[in-house]
Design a protein that fits this description.
It contains 13 helices and 9 strands. By secondary structure, the chain is of the alpha/beta class. The chain folds into 2 domains: about 140 residues, 3-Layer(aba) Sandwich (D-Maltodextrin-Binding Protein, domain 2); about 120 residues, Glycine betaine-binding periplasmic protein, domain 2 (D-Maltodextrin-Binding Protein, domain 2). Strands 3, 4, 7, 8 and 9 form a 5-stranded antiparallel β-sheet that branches. A two-stranded parallel sheet has the order 1-2. Strands 5-6 form a two-stranded parallel sheet. Strand 1, helix 1 and strand 2 form a beta-alpha-beta unit. The longest helix has 16 residues. It is globular, with a radius of gyration of 21 Å. It starts with about 25 loop residues before the first strand and ends with a helix.
Length: about 300
């Protein structure tokens, strides 16, 4: 995505930024459609409030180094499911602050199409999945089953989970978000075996019939204490956490852009609205810019309220 996104044509006058710096507020962009939408929406609302905005491509986890130094200013999507540990480590320094939930609740877990129950009837239990691992094998992974994970930069501890639970699966990481769901579409049309990383909010759980795998319940101790869980010698022997998608910022945001910081804090959007916008881009071929503009045109009262 280009570093500069054209300003949206809004039918309302821009709100004047009062005590805020004229320097650009740097918002991070990642590699999945929902995050590009969330960040663009936040950036365009800030522009409507008279703020200078710059979009910066950044790695999902590695971005915290830039947030701590103030080289980056706002990250709009830190998922409880995959980013909590990195977020907590950053906020513990006092250089990064949590600006609250985006309003969206996250699920990221192993997922399979419903037709796979015909060959693996014990699903969604993870042990049943493991007993059927050969049904998910590919020429490259046989006799091990293949789990198609997200891009490596997303985190998620899938490799560690497979090892800790002694699963007969090989983790193969998709190169991009688009590649991940293109492979799901291809497999689903052919009713081919597949188990992969699926997340919500997203259009995939609504478009395709299927279920998330049920692993042993997540706990913070499971991730941090090898003695906790069914494998006494390994951490990550459980499923992923679920919970809010957070907004975080450089601690200096409120000092340099106090009005903007309040606007970021006020931002909230629903899973349903986000899922619909992601579908507009990924399924209907609309651009992120046009999708954000359409939402803003239809929800003026909502986003104008963030600027008050």
């Amino acid at each position: 995505m280009k570093a500069k996104i054209a300003a949206l044509a809004l039918s309302v006058a821009a709100f004047p930024a009062l005590a805020d710096s004229a320097d650009p507020i740097k918002l991070t962009l990642h590699d999945w459609t929902g995050q590009l939408i969330t960040t663009t929406l936040m950036g365009e609302v800030l522009k409507a409030g008279g703020h200078n905005v710059e979009y910066v491509q950044a790695d999902y986890i590695a971005q915290f180094a830039g947030l701590e130094t103030g080289d980056l200013h706002v990250a709009m999507e830190i998922w409880e499911t995959t980013g909590r540990e990195a977020m907590d480590a950053a906020t513990a320094t006092g250089k990064v602050v949590n600006l609250g939930s985006t309003g969206m609740d996250a699920i990221e877990e192993w997922w399979y199409p419903a037709y796979m129950k015909d060959v693996c009837p014990g699903l969604p239990d993870w042990e049943a999945l493991n007993d059927c691992a050969s049904e998910f094998a590919t020429a490259e992974t046989a006799p091990l089953g293949r789990y198609l994970g997200g891009p490596v930069t997303w985190g998620g501890f899938d490799d560690e989970r497979v090892e800790a639970l002694e699963m007969d699966f090989e983790v193969v990481h998709a190169g991009t978000d688009a590649a991940l769901f293109a492979e799901l579409e291809s497999a689903y049309q052919r009713k081919a075996p597949i188990v992969l990383w699926v997340y919500a909010p997203h259009w995939a759980p609504a478009k395709y019939e299927g279920e998330f795998v049920q692993f042993p319940p997540y706990s913070a101790e499971c991730y941090n204490d090898p003695s906790v869980g069914i494998n006494p010698n390994a951490a990550y022997d459980c499923g992923k956490p679920t919970g809010p998608i957070w907004k975080v910022a450089w601690a200096g945001l409120s000092e340099n852009w106090p009005d903007a910081a309040k606007t970021v804090e006020a931002f909230t959007i629903s899973n349903d609205d986000m899922g619909a916008m992601v579908a507009a881009v990924d399924l209907d071929g609309k651009t992120v810019d046009d999708t954000v503009k359409a939402w803003m045109d239809a929800n003026k009262d909502t986003w104008m309220g963030w600027l008050k």
